[in-house]
């Protein structure tokens, strides 16, 4: 099988999270999923069949789940814990954000390269006003 991702892991904060293509089909409540983040195993699995925008969106979606988990947003007292079921609130939040971000990335081809070019640029010294 050809390599699915350019790297074997994605760095999210201080964690290196393994990226694993898998043949497994993820089903939950009769819904199909392209991928899953498993915090206990510290990995993101994505179905081998995913490609193009489905692959990109799935990877972004699962990275957002990792961010939610590692930032404790879904833990007791976290913003996604109170009211309703935590899992439902997290899934809706992550799905909405990842879908909207994919649209921004697709519709603005300059956006990601611009961010990448500017991420490590030192701040310029602000000019003093007269």
List the helices and strands and how they pair.
Layout: E1 9-12, E2 15-22, E3 26-28, E4 31-33, E5 35-38, E6 43-47, H1 52-70, H2 86-107, H3 111-119
Parallel strand pairs: 2-6
Antiparallel strand pairs: 1-2, 3-4, 5-6
Helix pairs in contact: 1-2
Describe the model.
The protein has 130 residues and is an alpha+beta fold. It has a single domain, classed as Arc Repressor Mutant, subunit A, CATH 1.10.10. The protein is built from three helices and six strands. The protein has helices spanning 52-70, 86-107, 111-119; strands at residues 9-12, 15-22, 26-28, 31-33, 35-38, 43-47. Strand 3 (26-28) and strand 4 form a beta hairpin. Helix 1 (52-70) packs across helix 2 (86-107). The longest helix is centred in the C-terminal third of the chain and has 22 residues, at 86-107. It is globular, with a radius of gyration of 17 Å.
Provide a compact summary of the structure.
The chain is an alpha+beta fold and 130 residues long. Helices cover 38% and strands 21% of the residues. The protein is built from three helices and six strands.
